[in-house]
Amino acid sequence: MHISELNTVACTIPAEDVTRVKGLGCLRDKTTPDCFNCRVLTRNGKITSAESIAIAEAAAKFGKGEVAMTTRQTIEIQGVPYENIDAMRAFLNEHGLDIGGTGPKVRPIVSCKGTTCVFGLIDTFSLSEKLHELYYIGYHNVKLPHKFKIAVGGCPNNCVKPDLNDLGIVGQRVIKHDLDACRGCKKCQVEQVCPIKIASVKDGKLDTEGCNNCGRCLGKCPFHVCDEFEVGYKVYIGGRWGKRVAQGQALEVILPSEEKVISLVEKAILLFKEQGVAGERFADTINRIGFEKAQQMLLTDDILLRKDEILK
Length: 312
Prior knowledge:
The structure is a single chain. The chain is an alpha+beta fold. It is 31% helix and 16% strand. It contains 10 helices and 11 strands. A 5-stranded mixed sheet has the order 5-6-7-10-11. The longest helix is centred in the C-terminal third of the chain and has 18 residues. It is elongated.
């Protein structure tokens, strides 16, 4: 392929200005000499009807009348000339919207629709909105070694691929099996409903080793083996997709509350800020210092005691 076939047009905007607006959330459109695609932030993929109208108006007034969805649940207004960016941002601000989502910092939080999905085990909208306020907005001026992506999944279906984010959260329904009540049925109802074919009867008792805590077997046993459960949160650290893909490793404990998750997310950000090297992803940091050490730092509160020092 000849270089002329790459459809890249020479940029007429000074490099420092391209960098400045990239920091605001506007990425250069390589097919134009002076236009940018600007990322409008959403609340984990949700906008109101009024906000939708405002985005459409902004696209028509300041861009080329098109929008595109990003893989991380922002909405790009396409083809905005450089001289229109500030006016477009002011217009969006008037409607309670803003642009962003770039740079070496905590990125906008994404989540699945677990709050409303029939398979959802946790309130993904609520948790992701709290994380967005605390760590995307609250840590917006904190420069990290690299971008830091967070995803909240409502169940082990992993629709938003939490294990491929720097930090991923997966809702869990931990069944408290009453094995004393198990009668070792030849046609076990729990075994029949298990979607990953883990449950089985061995030596006359139900065996669920390898269970992913999807909770589908809740209440399915006629002898009440699976009637009680606890809500939990599984956390993966060190995931990444892109030119080099890394699957995150799950912490060895399932967190019992939303408050524990929120605290752990902050500890992970502080760990990355303190231990990371400029230009490396969180996966690289964990590989370098070791998963066991990283896990220990996340499951204790020592790093929170150094928060002010780290953020300086």
